[in-house]
Write a structure and sequence with these properties.
The complex is a heterodimer.
Chain A lengths: L2 H19 L5 H25 L5 E5 L8 E5 L1 H24 L7 H17 L3 H19 L5 H32 L4 H4 L7 H17 L8 H5 L5 H26 L7 H20 L4 H22 L2 H32 L10 H4 L1 H15 L5 H15 L3 H26 L15 H19 L1 H17 L1 H8 L4
Helix pairs in contact in A: 1-2, 1-4, 2-3, 2-4, 3-4, 3-10, 3-13, 3-18, 4-5, 5-6, 5-10, 6-8, 8-10, 10-12, 10-13, 11-12, 11-17, 12-13, 12-16, 12-17, 13-15, 13-16, 13-18, 13-19, 15-17, 15-18, 16-17, 16-18
Chain B lengths: L1 H17 L4 H21 L21 H32 L12
The chains are: A mainly alpha, B mainly alpha.
Chain lengths: 489, 108
């Protein structure tokens, strides 16, 4: 079982190299791509099953002794993230096939490298390897974002690359300071160090700042809404589901394992979470393109996840984890709807669209389900995730953040209604009145994910049990530390 | 002390370049910032701080090799990033005519 941890990273990398070599032999890149993604899905399911009862799987590569080995480890939170991420890669690649995006020579190698980097970031137990996997993911994302080479993409790419490089440099500096002070970068070995010295706390705080930049927390969120709308639609959907969430995952992991939930950081996290929710949702109000609005909502939604982290109780963390999983599915679905609309109508600007609900009922239904889920209406998954968070906040006496989160839900709903009215309702503008060829394969990926949100809502008790187990493992942190450092596994 | 000064100088120069317009300057700025981080990494394993892990301690004092391996990895990654930024600048020159992508252009 523990060798799966290595394979889940290696499989897409091997397939990526094969796809580079055979990039001109038409079916092969696609075959390698889907084979590797499928293998990742299967391995993620196996890992979820192995960790579902609260266990931790760990692999020390090359059997070096504990703090020096490259250690890979997965608890339930990692395994669930792996599963959802692999599923999103599969769905977005299917969408890219439907749009013909995958004919770009290096499409499959880049997506596979991205997926390997994401998987690696989820299973590594070592800060330096986290850095390496982050870079692996980011370098692929830089190229995917700018693949077309249009001026808008170059502009977006410059902002995106410079902010992320700056965050990576901060990350590397933090790793260097951390190693200089403590002599290790193994997260489990660091578990007790941060509370001991001021310099280690400084390095840890630097880490949190750099992850915050990657997760697009306020006040370092500005790069996201300017860059995501410029990416090709299938790529934007992939980014919306995965990239910021890797930053969120790293925040969860480092704060709970390395900082052991240090109480003095919680007010800061909660303030940042509240500001992120509010500024993200208000930023969306003034936008007039589907993907611009949805991009600002990513920022706002990341606030909810950090709210769960800031509460740092079992219920709060469980709510945060449920929220991350739900958000990845729903947000990707919304971006896929936006991508399908743009592919068929040639624009994503609300004023130039209308009446799609009549022509494309399934697309409209997928959007409605995903949008209601995002806003947190029952019986969709978003409602239960938000309910858990708000309950945790009220139990904790954090009424302000609970109030903010409910207020932001209303604005989210308002924003989604704005898209609905602009795009799906009303009269179709003259220009797009002629019936456009609508492929079912463009709608299917978004519809599948919208259905997944409904299933997650109906099976909310099951999801909450899983999230609660994942949260308990994170909070206790001892099983993780023992699995990473201990001798047996 | 001298190490700290080198890092400080590199960071100052790197931040200055990153704040300039133009993708080439951005790339050079990140080269300097990356070097600052690498120097810091190597310093963190200096022989004044700690000896070699996993080897018998009777040898003559030598530096911890682990952060040097980190720095090597970081240099390779930094090289890839620099190459990408320069490719971006090259492409910008083709599209805009110079490497400043923020210049006014009505197509988007």
């Amino acid at each position: 079982m523990r060798h799966l941890l290595g394979l889940v990273v290696a499989a897409p990398l091997v397939a990526a190299s094969a796809a580079v070599v055979l990039r001109h032999r038409v079916p092969w890149p696609r075959v390698f791509g889907f084979a590797a993604i499928g293998a990742q899905l299967v391995m993620a399911v196996l890992l979820v099953r192995a960790t579902a009862s609260g266990g931790v799987v760990a692999l020390r590569v090359g059997d070096w002794p504990a703090p020096f080995a490259i250690t890979l480890a997965a608890d339930l939170f990692s395994a669930l993230m792996l599963l959802v991420a692999a599923a999103m890669v599969a769905v977005c690649t299917a969408f890219a096939v439907a749009r013909g995006d995958d004919h770009q020579a290096f499409f499959y190698p880049l997506v596979l490298v991205l997926s390997a980097g994401v998987a690696g970031a989820f299973v590594t137990a070592d800060l330096f390897n986290l850095f390496v996997f982050f870079e692996l993911m980011l370098i692929a994302s830089y190229v995917l974002l700018t693949l077309g080479g249009r001026i808008g993409q170059l502009r977006a790419g410059t902002v995106y690359v410079s902010v992320n490089l700056l965050a990576s440099t901060l990350f590397l500096i933090a790793v260097a300071v951390m190693y200089g002070v403590t002599g290790t970068v193994n997260m489990a070995a660091l578990a007790t160090e941060v509370s001991r010295s001021g310099a280690a706390t400084f390095a840890g705080a630097l880490l949190l700042v750099s992850f915050g930049m990657k997760a697009s927390l306020v006040p370092v969120h500005g790069w996201l809404p300017v860059s995501y709308p410029q990416a090709p639609p299938s790529i934007a959907a992939l980014f919306s589901g995965l990239l910021t969430k890797v930053g969120v995952y790293a925040l969860f992991r480092v704060y709970s394992i390395v900082f052991a939930g240090e109480a003095s950081f919680r007010p800061v996290l909660l303030v940042v979470a509240g500001a992120t929710m509010l500024l993200g949702v208000f930023g969306a109000v003034g936008r007039d393109g589907m993907r611009e609005i949805l991009s600002f909502h990513i920022v706002s939604q990341v606030g909810y996840m950090i709210m769960g982290l800031g509460l740092f109780g079992t219920l709060g963390l469980a709510g945060g984890i449920f929220y991350v999983l739900h958000h990845i599915v729903v947000k990707t679905s919304l971006f896929l709807v936006a991508g399908a609309v743009e592919s068929e109508e040639g624009t994503g600007v609300l004023d130039r669209l209308g009446g799609i609900a009549l022509r494309r009922p399934w697309l409209a239904a997928s959007f409605a389900v995903a949008a209601f889920s995002l806003a947190g209406l029952p019986p969709f998954s978003g409602f239960f995730a938000k309910l858990a968070l708000v309950r945790a906040a009220v139990e904790d006496g954090a009424y302000a953040i609970a109030a903010v989160s409910i207020l932001v839900s209303f604005f989210t709903l308002f924003s989604m209604l704005k898209i609905w009215n602009g795009v799906f309702w009303g009269e179709a503008p003259q220009a797009s009145r002629e019936r456009v060829r609508g492929a079912r394969s463009l709608v299917a990926p978004a519809a599948v994910l919208a259905a997944a949100s409904v299933v997650m809502g109906l099976a909310a008790d099951r999801m909450l049990v899983l999230s609660r187990t994942a949260a308990t493992v994170l909070m206790e942190s001892r099983p993780y530390v023992e699995a990473v450092l201990g001798g047996a596994s | 002390m001298s190490g700290a000064l080198v890092v400080a100088f590199l960071v100052a120069a790197g931040v200055y370049l990153v704040l300039q317009r133009g993708v080439v300057r951005l790339a050079l700025g990140f080269v300097l910032l990356g070097h600052a981080a690498n120097v810091l990494l190597v310093l963190s394993g200096g022989s004044a701080r700690r000896g070699v892990p996993l080897a018998d301690a009777s040898r003559a004092p030598s530096a911890d090799p682990l952060p040097q391996a980190f720095a090597l990895t970081a240099i390779v990654i930094g090289f890839a990033m620099t190459a990408f930024l320069l490719a971006l600048a090259y492409r910008a020159r083709d599209v805009v005519g110079e490497d400043d992508v923020e210049i006014e252009e009505d197509s988007s």
